């Protein structure tokens, strides 16, 4: 009887430790800018989404080229060149696509914002200069 109780207790403790370790995932430091009173917070795993959409491999080069052509009609040469580089390699945006991207909505101002981890500060500055 005592052996059975010890075995059950051990199993329970192992389960509790496993649960605590799996739930103890530290949040990313860049998420501290998301307001605590945000109405909605969405998280996107860009890397996984791109893999599922088949946008990572060379097999979809035709699709990537069509995207570039469609958006290229509305852009100047500098913007288009950067856009093409980003389509070929999303890391060219300066955003770390291996980390989650968060979108949040504010109740009072109806503002929408996003938070992403910076992968390369200079590339992100280049992107922002082209966008602005």
UniProtKB/TrEMBL annotation:
<dbReference type="Pfam" id="PF16120">
    <property type="entry name" value="DUF4836"/>
</dbReference>
<protein>
    <submittedName>
        <fullName>Uncharacterized protein</fullName>
    </submittedName>
</protein>
<dbReference type="InterPro" id="IPR032276">
    <property type="entry name" value="DUF4836"/>
</dbReference>
């Amino acid at each position: 009887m005592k052996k059975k109780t010890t075995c059950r207790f051990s199993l329970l403790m192992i389960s509790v430790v496993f649960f605590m370790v799996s739930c103890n995932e530290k949040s990313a430091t860049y998420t501290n800018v998301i307001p605590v009173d945000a109405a909605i917070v969405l998280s996107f795993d860009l890397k996984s989404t791109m893999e599922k959409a088949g946008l990572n491999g060379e097999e979809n080069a035709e699709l990537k080229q069509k995207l570039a052509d469609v958006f290229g009609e509305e852009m100047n040469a500098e913007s288009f060149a950067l856009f093409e580089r980003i389509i070929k390699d999303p890391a060219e945006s300066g955003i770390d696509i291996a980390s989650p991207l968060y979108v949040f909505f504010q109740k009072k101002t109806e503002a929408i914002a996003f938070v992403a981890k910076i992968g390369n500060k200079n590339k992100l500055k280049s992107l922002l200069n082209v966008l602005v």
